[in-house]
Amino acid sequence: MRFSNTFLDDIRDRVPISNVIARRVSWDKRKTNVSRGDYWACCPFHGEKSPSFHCEDRKGRYHCFGCGVTGDHFRFLTELEGLSFPEAVQQIADMAGVPMPLADPVMEKREKERGSLIDVMEMATQFFQDQLQTANGARARAYLRDRGLTGRTIETFRLGYAPDSRNALKEFLAGKGVSKDQIEACGLVVHENVPVSYDRFRDRIMFPILSSREKVIAFGGRAMSADAPAKYLNSNETELFHKGNVLYNFARARRAIQGPGRGDSQDDNATGTIIAVEGYMDVIALHQAGIENAVAPLGTALTENQLELLWKMVPQPVLCFDGDGAGIRAANRAAELALPHLKPGRSVRFALLPDGKDPDDLVRDDGRAPFDKVMSQAKPLSEMLWSREINTGKFDTPEARAELEARLKQLVAVIADENVRRHYQQDIRDRLNAFFQPQFQNRNNGDRRGGFNGNGNYRAGRDNAGKAGPKSPSVISERLARSGFSALPCPH
Questions:
Q1: Residue 490 forms part of a structural domain
Q2: Are residues 284 and 375 in the same domain?
Q3: Rounded Cα–Cα distance for residues 274 and 6 (Å)
Q4: Which of 186, 221, 241 is the last residue of a domain?
Q5: Is 387 part of any domain?
Q6: Residue that finishes a domain, picked among 381, 408, 442
Q7: Residue 487 lies inside a defined structural domain of this protein
Q8: Is 489 domain-assigned?
Q9: Which of 180, 184, 178, 232 is nearest to 209 (CA)?
Q10: What is the pLDDT along the chain (492 residues), one digit of tens a residue?
Q11: Are residues 263 and 340 in the same domain?
Q12: Which of the two ends of the chain, N or C, has the fewest CB atoms closer than 10 A to its terminal CB?
């Protein structure tokens, strides 16, 4: 029986891989960190005296640093216990409390058709790759060379070229026996009010878009002509491709943080997290500079499903945006998108690039160092929201300060997790106390005005004797409490 990828992913996500493996090993108490879902044991696949077998619940993977075995729930059961794949699926489904899917002739036919469409997309990819190396692809090769891409990088990402022809791809596929219906189902041709279909991508550099299983499911095309109506054009929605559910370079980035010996580093730019940037070329340029853990949405704002994909890989991805007005607006939209879905230990951070620069610009001339510096300055979500709100105007009147409080209260109210919401309320209460404090000091004590410096850090005012002013005026605390920002218990 053939199982859908959706079903397999669902039962894998429901069962921690440590639960599957624990029946065959004893966890090493010294190296294992249960709270992090990080487990070590002596390898059940080969004899050893010190634990080199590692599994992580967050990634759903195991790896032995001694003998090199690696895999997921199903592979562990098939290779160690000798189960067939359907038997392994049955066992994991039982542990997940999920019924096995019934044989569905319609679904099986659909899966078969999807497989044939995958084959067509692979043919198209090879066609575009071949065209890049012809005389017709000379301008496209020159463009990629001018962008600093090496031949190895072009091959790694399988970049290609769609010739300036209405029928080149269509005729190539037809010559391979691909039917008209299949070509249309893949989104490779369009009609646009004419009876005869023609190639969707023409005179464009082609970027294959891969599924989580590393199969080509769509394309992005970058126009070579300045007169093209769209600089970047993606495949339309098809049976294979739903744009809001896919991240460019997802599979390769996931592999970069899951590979042997990886995933434990605290270096965000190496393997410690996933970085979401804005475009195809940003991802490719970073990869060439040695930063292999970057992904990108497909020409649109980040979606909830794409955010969930990021969280499936790491608990705190970094969202990297251009530092211009459009990039900051995109960052703000992403911040509001993430807020309702925060959970303990699950959030996002934000890295803003210098104005007018993108990741491609930063790494092209000076390597990864400038980008690493930007990443080291990534801000947590709470800081991003606070900076946005206090930069919206002056707060020199009670009405303006009340409006600021109301906006912040409304922002954090959407956080679904009660504990996270409570801590955000406390964080905002503390920030407001410090932000409003200098105004009251100035009014009541004649202090020199304090406030936040350019980094968003509070600088206290000083009285005439040089001593710090009062830290927490009771009038402010009472007013904030009345506004709904209740204090957390004092840790002392």
A1: no
A2: yes
A3: 23
A4: 241
A5: no
A6: 381
A7: no
A8: no
A9: 232
A10: 578 888 898 899 999 999 999 988 999 999 999 888 899 999 988 878 889 999 999 889 999 998 889 999 999 999 888 888 988 999 999 999 999 887 667 766 767 777 789 999 999 999 999 999 999 999 999 999 999 999 999 999 999 999 999 999 999 999 999 999 999 999 999 987 777 899 999 999 999 999 988 899 999 999 999 988 889 999 999 999 999 999 999 989 988 886 544 433 334 444 468 999 999 999 999 999 999 999 999 877 899 999 988 988 888 999 999 888 888 888 999 999 999 999 988 999 999 998 778 898 889 878 899 999 999 999 999 999 999 999 888 888 889 999 999 999 999 999 999 999 999 999 999 999 888 876 555 555 544 444 444 444 444 444 444 444 444 444 444 544 444 444 444 444
A11: yes
A12: C
User: Residues with Cβ < 8 Å from 196, sequence gap 6 or more?
Assistant: none
Supply the CATH number for residue 206's domain: 3.90.980.10
- Which two structure tokens, joined as six digits, stand for 99? 């019924």
Beta bridge partners of 63: 54, 70
**Judgement on whether residues 126 and 60 belong to the same structural domain of the protein:** no
Integer Rg of the chain from CA? 27
Other C-beta atoms lying within 10 Å of the C-beta of residue 104? 12
User: How many structural domains comprise the chain?
Assistant: 4
The CATH number covering residue 63 comes to 3.90.580.10
Q: Are residues 349 and 427 in the same domain?
A: no
Other Cβ atoms closer than 10 A to 17 = 23
- Examine the domain organization and report whether 307 and 180 are in the same domain: no
* Both structure tokens of 169: 């791809």
Say if residue 199 is in the same domain as residue 259: no
My answer on whether 266 and 237 are in the same domain is no
Q: Taking the CB of residue 21, how many other CB atoms lie within 10 A of it? A: 20
State whether 64 and 175 are in the same domain.
Answer: no
Residue owning tokens 């769209």: 230
Show the domain range for 328. Answer: 250-381
